[in-house]
Amino acid sequence: MTEAIRSLDHIQLPIPPRTAPVARAFYEGLLGLKEVRDPGLDYPGVLRYSLGWQRLDLSEGYYTGVAPQAHLALRVVDVARLADALEAAGHRVDRSAFTDGRVYVEDPFGNRLELVEPPSTSIDTPVRAHVQDLLIAV
User: Fold this and answer.
1) Helix (H, G, I), strand (E, B) or coil at 103
2) Does the predicted TM-score (pTM) go above 0.70?
3) VOC domain location, by residue (predicted)?
C-alpha cells in the first residue's frame, strides 16, 4: 500500500462538564494557545486550539478517564480506499460521517481513530508547495 497517512489532523481529549473556564486558564493562560473558532465546527462545550497545521480539541462530557469522544485524527490521502482496506483486514469501520470525508475505526487495542480526507481546497496543502510556486513565478 502506498503512503496513506499524510499527517496528524487533531487530537480530541475529554474534559469534565462545566470546566471550560479551567481549561481556558490552563491552555490559553499558561500554555499560550489561541482558541480558534469555525462556524462549521463550533459546538457547545468544545474548545479548539490551533497547533500550527494541527488542532487540539477539548470536549466537555461525562468524564470517565477514557471517554468515547477521545480520539486521534489522522489526515489521509484516500479515505475510501483506506476504509475498504481496513474492512478487508477485518476491522469495523464507522462510515456514518463519510459524506464529510471522514470515517472512524478502532485500532487493535480499542483506541478510536478518525481518518480525515480534507477537501482539495483546504488549507491542508503544504506551505512549501506554495512557497516553491511563488519562487518559480518571481
Assistant:
1) strand
2) no
3) 7-118
